[in-house]
Amino acid sequence: MQDEIKIGEFVRSYIEKIFEYCEENPDEFKRLQDKEYSKDIFDINYPFCMKTADISEKDLCRYWKRFSPHPDGEYVVCNIKVRVCSQWFDEYINQSRKLFSQYLFKKKLATKQELAQLKAISIKNERIKVASGKRKNSRYRGNAIGNAQNLAIRNILSNLGSESFNADDWNITKAYFVNQCAYCGSDGNLEMEHAVPINKEKLGEHRLGNIIPSCKPCNKKKHNKNYIEFLGSNTERIKIIEEYMRSRNYVPITKSAEIKQILDQAYRDVGLIAEKYIKTINALDSGGDNET
Ligand SMILES: [Zn+2]
């Protein structure tokens, strides 16, 4: 199981959407600058957003600027520069995650399916069932965007290196692990496996040193965990994998807040592009057909 997205990343990934909504609903923009309102609807102790000019020196650290690729680093809403409260905490302290999800859903900024997919809402707690049958207007919404977003991130991470990988490399890699699964040592059918998964949480790359042999069951069980999380107390195998990584000069990207922010940006941009075309096509096709 993939971990829940961190509350801060979750909020950040929807800021642009919320502000787009505010452009059309200036009253909401005013309310979001109100401390009481923000406490009520998000359970945070600061206004959701604040005019940059009004943020005191000591509070600057409590507000997010816009992500780094943007030249001046400020959100601009209704021609006003603002920053967004960064003081979000998770459920065991308060209700922000649930409340923020409800807000997105109520304002139609996210579907329940999207939220469940992000694991922004714990499915168990919220009793959200991802619809398996037909849903109205489901043709363009839902998984497709999330998948495209994840694919874009995968594509970016996969192309960071310039290494090529061929059958010989794979044989050398398997030989390094004595033709056994790097995780459990079984010598069943071995599959290529990314020790550090290629997604925007784990920041793995498609490089020689990150590709190791795994049996099918381990590969499936490991899913989106990185090799350390998966192996846990099995330090012996972790050591072997890390020696292999070193032998291939692979140094995993770790804790790079900046890279994560850039990838979050890419993730959101792809989502916005998809949304834009969904709106365009839906506008053309308002009569619609009845296919499911
Ligand atoms: Zn295995």
Radius of gyration: 22 Å
Main sheet record: 4 strands, antiparallel
- Give the count of helical stretches: 13
Low-confidence stretches: 121-143, 288-292
- Name the overall outline: elongated
Concise description?
With 292 residues, this protein is α+β, with helices and mostly antiparallel strands. The protein has 2 domains: 124 residues, no CATH class; 87 residues, Orthogonal Bundle (DNA Binding (I), subunit A), CATH 1.10.30. It is built from 13 helices and 6 strands.
What this model shows, in words?
- With 292 residues, the chain is of the alpha+beta class.
- It has helices spanning 7-12, 15-24, 26-32, 35-42, 96-106, 112-117, 123-126, 143-158, 167-176, 216-222, 227-231, 235-247, 257-284; strands spanning 49-51, 63-64, 75-77, 80-85, 190-194, 211-215.
- The structure holds zinc ion.
Could you give the topology of this structure?
Layout: H1 7-12, H2 15-24, H3 26-32, H4 35-42, E1 49-51, E2 63-64, E3 75-77, E4 80-85, H5 96-106, H6 112-117, H7 123-126, H8 143-158, H9 167-176, E5 190-194, E6 211-215, H10 216-222, H11 227-231, H12 235-247, H13 257-284
Antiparallel strand pairs: 1-4, 2-4, 3-4, 5-6
Helix pairs in contact: 2-3, 8-13
Zinc ion (ZN) binds at residues 181, 183-184, 186, 214-215, 217-218.
